[in-house]
Amino acid sequence: MRADGSGQTRLTRDAAADGSPAWSPDGSAIAFASTRDGGRELYLARPDGRGVERLTVGASATRDALAWSPDGSRIAFHAARGDNYDIEAVRVDGRARARLTAGPSYDGMYSWSPDGTRLAFISDREGYDAIYVMDAQGGRARRLTGDASLNPAWSP
Fold first, then answer.
1. CA 3 → CA 6, 8, 50, 67, distances in Å?
2. pLDDT tens digits, residue range 45-65?
3. 156, exposed or middle or buried, with CB in 10 Å at 0-12, 13-18, 19+?
4. Which of helix, strand or coil describes residue 49?
5. What's domain 18-143's architecture?
6. DSSP summary character for residue 146
């Protein structure tokens, strides 16, 4: 829809639960999560809702927001494995998926750095939600805050 609320257009018509939409940085696609093929997977569609294509298999994506990398090549998402929640990313072109965090703690609320090389996120790995930062390819995370913190965001 337009910013004033007019021109609303329904983009999906599947009976499944579709949600967590996120526009690509260049506006050419919308990523979203859906249960249309069983588990909660990631999909891409054109801005008019056509050309829907599945990006993941077995993702177990949560309802948390999807986040496009600044260059539009990857989408970060929140994956649930039992009681564990990790951050994963999928390449939009080749569909390759990578688990960026792993462990028994909650990792989520991720935010790409403006240059796309790092992700900030929260984790309760030390008993409270602190902000961490890691390389965008995953690996060792460094804690940035000593107190409980939420919703990390990068300055432009």
1. 7, 10, 22, 21
2. 999 889 999 999 989 998 888
3. exposed
4. coil
5. 6 Propeller (2.120)
6. S
Predicted confidence (pLDDT) at residue 84 exceeds the cutoff of 90 = no
135 token code pair: 């390389």
The DSSP-derived string for 3-48 is TTS-S-------SS-EEEEEE-TTSS-EEEEE-TTSS-EEEEE-TT
Q: What predicted TM-score, i.e. pTM, was given to this entire model? A: 0.92
How far apart, in Å, are the Cα atoms of 97 and each of 12, 17, 74, 90, 118? Answer: 24, 22, 9, 4, 17
Q: Where are the domains of the chain?
A: 18-143
Task: Return the amino acid letter for 152.
Answer: P
For the chain, how far is it from start to end, CA to CA, in angstroms? 26
Is the predicted pLDDT of residue 16 greater than 90, yes or no? no
Amino acid in position 141: A
Chain segment 89-140, per-residue pLDDT in tens: 999 997 799 999 988 889 999 999 999 999 999 999 999 999 999 999 998 9
